[in-house]
Amino acid sequence: MRSNGPVRTDPLRNFKFQVDITKAITKQDGTTTGILLAKAGFMSVGGLAAQTEPIPYREGGMNTTTHKLPGQTDFPPITLSRGMFDASDGKAGDAMWGWFKEIFFYQMGNGFGEAGNDFRTDFFIRVMGHPITQGPGSDTLNSSEGARAIFKVFNAWPQSISYSDLDAGGNAIQVEQVVLVHEGFEPVWATDANVGLAATF
Prior knowledge:
Number of strands: 10
Helix content: under 10%
């Protein structure tokens, strides 16, 4: 009987993914709530990489080669691109812009946000299996079931936000681009084709 599912040796597709960014906010009464900054809706995610800088070291008597020691590891910014929606889209509206404005509070001690709230947050990038068939875990946009890989990004905050140019003679959608700096990420892969990954790790 032919199988409708993916072959185990098939590589992951790079076009079916979900980004979840939820930021914790501490209110004046001490209670904590989460604000949904983004969920899915992104056109592209770029910058998932890590690089360790080498430290060259030359030793007398060993003139044919240079020793290389591992130096500091750095992670480039992650760039998220998505189409713009109005406030009724249900995709957090202008919450991303509000997150960007919290940097002003940290820089100047005034502006937007409340004292004591951290402008950094962790977030998840989930790579979904494809194709998705009927059965448990098929609703991948509302759960982590069906995720083949998850990248957890640590201590991210928005470095820049940009919007595409307005052009009356063009034929394109309005795009919002957000650049997030962060302090590293941790990838986790599913170990079995029938087992989804947990929402957190």
